[in-house]
């Protein structure tokens, strides 16, 4: 089965799961955040197809759903990678070279902040202060914390996730 057809089939299956989940929320306007969280848990992100289903089920406008999705940082409009990389750009980390670590990650992965690799393996984000200033600069990959990062350590650390 070709890759695009496989992705379409997988999305169709997940949309059916979302429709099933939405049955218990029909017409409940106040449930928008909860429904979006559940839908994202099922699909992994909130494509327009999911947003339309949610708007219809809750009897709200698509623009209301979209504005909610884009307002909250924990919602994603694009698929996210298996490994989510966050680089702290808080003051302590930035002063100690986090921007250079971030640049090296972008170079190694071939993506920019906010993007995901084509193979859906890595997503790259910057964040503000993770509360580990003594370890600055800090990179977090899923639940793994890497302190005192340097650009030269990036390739070695990425090998742990292959």
TrEMBL record:
GO molecular function, one term: hydrogen dehydrogenase (NADP+) activity
Cofactor stoichiometry and binding remark: Binds 1 [2Fe-2S] cluster.
Source species, domain of life: Bacteria
CDD domains documented for this protein: TRX_Fd_NuoE
EC number(s) from the headed UniProt entry: 1.12.1.3
Enzyme class: oxidoreductase
Cofactor: [2Fe-2S] cluster
Keywords from the UniProt entry: 2Fe-2S, Iron, Iron-sulfur, Metal-binding, Oxidoreductase
Binding, [2Fe-2S] cluster: 88, 93, 129, 133
Family, similarity comment: Belongs to the complex I 24 kDa subunit family.
Protein name as catalogued: NADP-reducing hydrogenase subunit HndA
Organism: Fervidicola ferrireducens
């Amino acid at each position: 089965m070709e890759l695009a057809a496989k992705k379409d089939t997988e999305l169709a299956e997940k949309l059916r799961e979302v429709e099933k989940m939405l049955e218990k929320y029909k017409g409940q306007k106040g449930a928008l955040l909860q429904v979006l969280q559940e839908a994202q848990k099922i699909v992994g992100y909130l494509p327009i197809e999911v947003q339309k289903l949610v708007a219809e089920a809750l009897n709200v406008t698509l623009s209301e759903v979209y504005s909610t999705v884009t307002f909250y940082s924990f919602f994603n409009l694009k698929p996210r990678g298996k490994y989510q990389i966050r680089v702290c750009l808080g003051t302590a980390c930035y002063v100690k070279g986090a921007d250079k670590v971030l640049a090296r990650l972008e170079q190694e992965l071939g993506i920019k902040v906010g993007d995901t690799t084509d193979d859906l393996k890595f997503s790259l984000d910057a964040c503000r202060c993770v509360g580990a200033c003594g370890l600055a600069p800090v990179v977090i990959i899923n639940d793994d914390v890497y302190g005192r990062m340097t650009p030269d350590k990036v390739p070695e650390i990425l090998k742990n996730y292959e």
